Amino acid sequence: MKLLLKQKEFSVLAIILIITVILSFVSPVFLTVQNWLDIIEGNTVIGILAIGMTLIIITSDIDVSVAALTTAVTVSIGYLFQFLPDNWSSVVLIFLIAPLIGMLLGAFNGLLVSRIKIPAIVVTLGTLNIFSGLVLYITNGNYINSTNFPDSFLAFSNIEMAGIPILIYLFALVAFGTWFILKYTLIGRSVLAIGGNAQSSVRVGINFEKVKMFVFSYMGFLGGIAAIAQTSYTSAIDPNGLAGMELTVIAAVVLGGANIHGGRGSIPGTLLGVLLLAIMQNGMILARIDVFWQNVVTGAIIVIAVSYDEINHRRNQEKLSNIDVKEAS
Amino acid sequence: MSEYILEMEHISKTFPGVKALDNVELKVQKGEVHALIGENGAGKSTLIKVLAGIHGADEGGKYLFEGEKADIQEPMDATLKGMSIIYQDLSLFPNLSVAENIYIGRDSKKKPWTKINWKSMKKLANKALAELDMDIDLNKKVELLSIAQQQMIEIARALAFDSKLIVMDEPTSSLSSGEVEKLYNVIDKLKERGISVIFISHKLKELFRVSDRFTVLRDGQYVGTYDVNEIDEQGLIKKMVGREVVYETNKEKAETGEKLFEISSFSKEGNFKDIDLTLHRGEILAITGLVGSGRTELAQSIFGITKNVQGEMWLKGEELKISSSEDAVKKGIAYVPEARQTQGLVLEQSVINNMTLPIIDTLRNKLKLIDRNVEKNLTDQYIKSLDVRPAIPELTADKLSGGNQQKVVIGKWLSAQPKLLIIDEPTNGIDIGAKTEIHKLLRRMVNEGIGVIMISSELPEVLSVSDRILVMSRGRIAGEMNTVDADQEEIMKLALDNEGIESGNDTKTPNGTHHQEV
Amino acid sequence: MNAKLSKESILGLIAIGIFVGMSLFTPRFFSSSNLSNMMFQLPEFGLIALGMMVVIITGGIDLSITYIAAFSGVGAALMMTNGFGILPAIIVGILFALACGAFNGIVVSRIGVPPILVTLGTMVLFEGVILAITSGNAISGFPDAYSLIGNGYYMGIIPLSLLILLFFIILTGILLNKSTWGRRVYMYGSNDTATLFSGVKNSKVLMKVYLYASLLAAVSAIIMTSRYNSVKVDLGSSYLLQSVAAAVLGGTNIHGGYGKVMGTIYAVLIFQFIRNGLNLMGAHSSLVDVVIGAILIVVLTFNFFSDKFSRKKAENTPEKAA
């Protein structure tokens, strides 16, 4: 079932396993539960954003404003904290308001892409400048630390269930929810459909603009949730904290098998992509590899992965167009 | 209820400046196969688009489906009413499963958060496939299926929608002969179940095999509707073109000279095998065969687009080693591809830029920069000699008609002064006037000493233009003959590899004359 | 058809308009010190924007361009701090950049990976290599003569670096419009299949595009390192997204096939005037980003509606222009 896709995810999984085996020899700490929990918790923000980015890349678009958008929501959260009472209702309110703000910002991207038909790379480049510029203007680049946070929020951040931090549950919920949307809802299947063949999708009555609007708004929605995760994880609001993260997010999605040509990509694949980047980083720290070499390895892996994917893609295309040559009689 | 499933009368469609349909009629009975025919540009596809709800017709027409006024605002309305359209390029999703491709569209009017029920989806898909006696894994992705199987998925989708009318736009254009026969059987089966089919095709023989009635359009106007028993091929052609068009088989024995071009034991896995071919000075060599017989692949291998080809190749006595299209052009080989709009031309760029693209390096002045005057003069010269209209070199190529676009592509290669020109489906989608011009041009080139290999699946064209004919089938050369001795039937037999169809409604061909398949 | 101004000329007029407006309403904008300030800032950004434009004309994008610049700057800096002369240092700097460009070019043109993915990867890769070499530290302390490139004047009035930019504006214009390579770049950008079927060696065309972009990045890097007298991993990194914005605002089609040198240069000027003017008005520096982003979106939205409007108009007039 789904042979091709599974194969691709399988190869990412295989690489992860190989790295895991190597690293467990290099450092005894690597293969401990605590280390893996730390890795996952530390990559919750990237992971949540990558899940949203997966949907966008499936429709063969891209969103480079995600980090700026998320930062804009974290700053809004910081601002809201001044007005929120110090009880559990503020946590609930934050979970209502932050995704809503994110969704509105994402919808703005979606509107420009779907209605005004400006290429997504240009739109999100523009909104990246606008979001991050406004954030820096408003905050003056200043860091807000947790002294201003409601205690209830800090308490929320420290929740652990069965020894697992709350953020990991949040991450899992987002991953499962998005997987469910992609697999079991009409809008989710429409996302895959317009990525697979835009013209066909119009012919079978799928509203192209609506689906584009959805993926960008959903990205914004998850940006809002990621903002909560970021605030909770760092217990601070740093206007520069996520700068450049959009590229890591895109890299994780691409490593996970989503293809910029559209139509390919899955939540399990993306999770593996995030995990691969995460354990490499963690492993290199544990292996005491100079921190400066980490980017070299990450960059090389991205280039190799996309090249490998392209070569494979071509070979398959060629095979499909082959004809059945008659054997000599 | 009337006996007609579909009644369209007085249908007109005006685009800015053009009347694409003028008072057209199309009435389809229940359970019949109705052929819609006409030349390119006759208005068939516009009519289908009106039917499908892609275009709205002008005021005043009558459009009834099952005896009721069809109020169709968008494509899905038509589908939900029971009309399915199978476009030539199919409307499938390669990355989705068979089951989903059959099911998709069903919920398009529902809320976005509607839950997908995979079980009932599979059940529905299974049922539709069973009706077609198809055995395909429902979870398989559609991109892994053959074109024929993909077409069946489209038909299954139509069945799953309980369609009462299925429109098939040139369904056989990319099928092998065995697959075509299977499709005919499916159509027969649909008919038995009372489903009506509108069948669009350019292959007249095929139309006589499957259709019950014909509706003919010409220049956006309704010509008439005819029963299969009351008209023959010749009569149909007359209705389509408004006059009797006959192509004379080329009877002249060409004065052939020395060997100009030769390939021997050319092979490429999955494309063709052991191809030998010789072209003499002064002759036009035609390569014909069905789509997918390896003709185009062979041409693209000679031209260096397809790589890793085994075999030898000589041009004017010199052995050629070609590994890219750049090499091929340098050695004097030119190739006019079949896909004019995507491969032949850069549509968004000017005629002048297109015309000089292969030879731009030779148009440099002392400073190694493009000499605009030389470039302009050269382009003007070819625009004039080929009679490209409008004769504006700065115009972008997308503003030209198909025939004029083809002239630009040919001009592009003439300017390169090739020794060998390979031209793939030279008159595909070109009106009759321009067709004749292009055929004359090919003869002129041969007389000037350029070798011409013409690939064509239009037999009348092959017979009237070429001097010698090679027939390809399943990647091999199935036969060779001089055009003077050639016979349409025999070519078809070779092309079909003898596994093919009994030519069902074959009409007699009068001596030496062949009717055009439009 | 009535005589109409080209897109680029309109942009040029807007640039002049902004310049006049800023001069009238912003104190000190039209002062000699401020004008020379702008003239010194312009070249480094202009060069990178030109490089980005050439890549975008092929339908690609080069996200690694500023790291190529930084890498090149590091190369030159290492040479100088190790006692080599200025000229060898510049040559090594350029070679470093060309090596990066060649790497991008090979992966894009030979393997056929979409440029956005390749350069995303090489951006991280080059950044990593720079970090590994410099350990994240700045390299500084170049010979006095070197600082002339970015800070010196020609004949006492015109900044040398501006002349360098001018040279590359003319060179890029000639290459794109008059050379056969330039012609192929545009043709490739519109339809790479048709160029392949016309005997154009696409991979060669693309290779040269990425090499040329990296050359411009290297020249920009030399000007920047000379001006700042130091180099760090983030050299010029703020120009990455701005250069894409400038190319697009300048009329370059993000899908390829169209783009003019002067359009991009006018866009660069507009950004420069606005940045400088806003600074003088005392606006927060990050507001400049907001304004640039807003201009980009507003202009493209405006284009969308004006296209729609003119299309409607064309439909209402019965005869179509030939």
Describe this structure in words.
The complex is a heterotrimer of chains A (329), B (518) and C (322). Chain A has 329 residues and is mainly alpha-helical. Chain A is 74% helix and 2% strand. Chain A has helices spanning 3-26, 33-42, 44-58, 66-81, 88-114, 120-139, 151-157, 166-184, 186-196, 198-203, 208-234, 245-255, 267-286, 293-321, and strands at 144-145, 160-161, 164-165, 236-237. The longest helix of chain A has 29 residues, at 293-321. Residues 1-5 of chain A have low confidence and may be disordered. With 518 residues, chain B is of the alpha/beta class. Chain B has 3 domains: 4-245, Rossmann fold (3-Layer(aba) Sandwich), CATH 3.40.50; 247-332 and 418-500, Rossmann fold (3-Layer(aba) Sandwich); 344-417, no CATH class. Helices cover 32% and strands 25% of the residues of chain B. Chain B has 17 helices and 22 strands. Chain B has helices at 44-52, 75-81, 98-103, 118-131, 147-160, 177-192, 204-210, 233-241, 295-302, 325-330, 340-344, 351-355, 372-386, 402-415, 432-447, 459-465, 488-495, and strands at 4-15, 18-29, 33-37, 62-65, 68-69, 83-86, 165-169, 196-200, 213-218, 221-227, 246-248, 259-268, 272-280, 284-289, 310-315, 318-319, 333-336, 420-424, 451-455, 468-473, 476-482, 513-515. Chain B has a 6-stranded mixed β-sheet, with helices on both faces. A 6-stranded mixed β-sheet of chain B has the order 17-18-19-14-20-21, sandwiched between helices. A 4-stranded antiparallel β-sheet of chain B has the order 2-1-4-5, with helices on one face. The longest helix of chain B has 16 residues, at 177-192. In chain B, 48% of the residues are buried. Chain C is an all-alpha fold and 322 residues long. Chain C has a single domain (23-313), classed as Orthogonal Bundle (ABC transporter involved in vitamin B12 uptake, BtuC), CATH 1.10.3470. In chain C, 75% of the residues lie in helices and 2% in strands. In chain C, the strands form 2 sheets. Chain C has a two-stranded antiparallel sheet with strand order 1-4. A two-stranded antiparallel sheet of chain C has the order 2-3. In chain C, a hairpin with a 3-residue loop joins strand 2 and strand 3. In chain C, helix 1 runs parallel beside helix 12 (261-280) and helix 11 packs across helix 12. The N and C termini of chain C lie close together (10 Å). The interface between A and C is large, with 48 and 45 residues.
